Automatic annotation (TrEMBL):
Annotated GO MF terms: acetolactate decarboxylase activity
Keywords: Acetoin biosynthesis, Decarboxylase, Lyase
Organism phylogeny: Bacteria, Pseudomonadati, Bacteroidota, Flavobacteriia, Flavobacteriales
Protein name in the entry: Alpha-acetolactate decarboxylase
Similarity remark: Belongs to the alpha-acetolactate decarboxylase family.
Record gene name: budA
Enzyme class: lyase
InterPro entries: Acetolactate_a_deCO2ase
């Protein structure tokens, strides 16, 4: 009799344990699914364009934090020490002398845009004569210019012209209105690579750069920077439409005290 009771109790415990594990597994799967859905449609933005324009050249987040919020992205490192390019979860740093390095996870970032790229649409172009032509082709594919978009664009480049920024030192005397027109420029011909970047609607104002903003990294990882002009063929354009926007403000004393006197938008498109 007692043995039978023990068997029944033991059997009930096994069933309850199985049901508990099953429910926990379903919760885990649901949580993972929720996280994937959340990641797929968020534009992460650290600092704001207006602060960047007004000589806030030091941030308080790291390269590791940028990678935790996306697998493609762009921006700049502290003291403007190189253009930031993120492709497939890897960060690159395009220095002012034209060299490309991989920063360590503790490298500080002053400004960043990032997202976990999820293709919503794609198309191909046999040839593109210039940047303006590419913008026109993409414009026809966008569902609305009131949305945000991320891009991953791979192709063969007959020529590519990229810009960087000169590394700064305190005290910071010049803002982007001076630095960008006098930026270092790098050019290369007959090679392949990928442009990554974003489109922000005009209403973004001083929070971000409106229009198209693309950075570039070559397949051999030896050429990178802010895209200025190019001629290309066999382009594959992938588009991710983004409906959620998150920006994180710096907690540095310089940011807290800065005035926003200067206004400057680079190449509104």
């Amino acid at each position: 009799m007692i043995k039978n009771i023990i068997k029944i109790v033991f059997g009930c415990c096994i069933v309850l344990l199985f049901l508990h594990c099953k429910n926990e597994g379903e919760k885990d799967n649901f949580s993972k699914s929720e996280m994937e859905n959340e990641k797929s449609d968020k534009f992460y933005h650290y600092s704001i364009w207006h602060a960047f324009v007004n000589k806030i050249f030091e941030g308080d987040i790291t390269a590791a934090e940028v990678k935790a919020n996306g697998d493609i992205g762009l921006g700049s490192y502290n003291l403007l020490d190189g253009e930031l390019i993120m492709l497939d979860g890897e960060l690159y740093q395009a220095k002012e002398d034209g060299t490309v390095v991989i920063p360590n996870d503790t490298t500080k970032v002053v400004y960043a845009n990032a997202t976990f790229f999820d293709v919503d649409d794609s198309f191909e172009l046999e040839s593109v004569a210039d940047y303006e032509t590419l913008r026109k082709h993409i414009n026809r594919k966008l569902s609305s210019k009131n949305m945000f978009y991320a891009f991953k664009i791979h192709g063969e480049f007959k020529r590519m012209k990229c810009g960087g920024l000169h590394k700064q030192a305190k005290p910071f005397n010049d803002g982007l209105d001076i630095l960008i027109p006098n930026r270092p420029i790098f050019e290369r011909e007959n090679f392949s690579g990928t442009m990554v970047g974003f489109f922000c609607p005009e209403f973004i104002g001083d929070i971000n750069a409106s229009g198209y903003h693309l950075h570039f990294i070559s397949d051999d990882k030896e050429f990178a920077g802010h895209v200025m002009e190019f001629e290309a063929k066999n382009l594959k354009i992938e588009i991710d439409e983004i409906h959620e926007y998150q920006f994180v403000l710096p907690q540095t004393e310089a940011y807290k005290q800065v005035g926003f006197e200067k206004e400057f938008q680079y190449k509104k498109q």
